[in-house]
Amino acid sequence: MTMPHAPFSYLASLWIQVTGTWCNLTCTHCFNSSGPKDPWLRSLDADAVTAAIREAEELGVKEIYFTGGEPFLHPKMLAFLEAGLAVAPATVLTNGILVREATADALAALAAKSRYSLEVRVNIDDVDPELNDRVRGRGAFAGAMRAVRLLTARGLLPIVTATEISMGAPSTDPEQGMYARLRRMLLAHGIAKPRIKIIPVFRMGRLQPIGTPTLLSPEMLQGFDFSTLMCSETRVVAQGGSTPARSWPACRGRGSRTGASGSP
Questions:
Q1: What pLDDT, in 10s, does the model give residues 130-163?
Q2: For residue 159, what is the domain's CATH number?
Q3: Residue-wise over 98-135: b if at least 16 C-beta within 10 A, else e?
Q4: Which of 14, 37, 150, 245 could cross-link to 55 by cystine, CB 3.0-4.6 Å?
Q5: What is the pTM of this model?
């Protein structure tokens, strides 16, 4: 069967998977199976990251995201952020556990001297520490909240990012929904200007409804506006993805190998 593909139009967003699937947590809902033992995708070396940022700059990248695994496990993470911020607004996605006083100071210094904005997303999946840690691991809630407080104290206003996994079905009462509950919790912890991003759970594998799957075909995409697809303007760089940015290929219907991937 011929797989459909979408043309690569321009580079708006670059995602750099700096630590591959190496993480200090083993979250039950992790879509790329990150964890502390035997990561199936290794960390990037410094040359690969700086080369990707340089080529992305040549292509007019609008924003750069640093992720993993847990990006702050990489010893060069702060240097990567500095390089990224010289080119475009940058965001780092973290569980927050490794963000201590020194790291928070360094992040604040980077943000203060950069011409572009620095965003830090910290993952919290439930307002109840016990329920959160069932998903993310013991101590995850305390570590994340410490990071939020440290960053907030330095004026960085981190974005608390939550996945709709442990709070049950969405409530019809907006005051009982995930966003409202997280906001109340953050205010109670002294976070005067809470910023929250809610990410839905994507059905995968056994979570999909029972039935015969339908594969995407080129015929289904006839007349489709490919510019609406993330893969027409976003690329991921990870270990093993050495394709130069200038020749990043079109994304294919079933996804392509990391490094020329259609979406983060």
A1: 999 999 999 999 999 999 999 999 999 999 999 8
A2: 3.20.20.70
A3: ebeeebbeebbebbeebeeebbbbbbbbbbebeebbeb
A4: 245
A5: 0.85
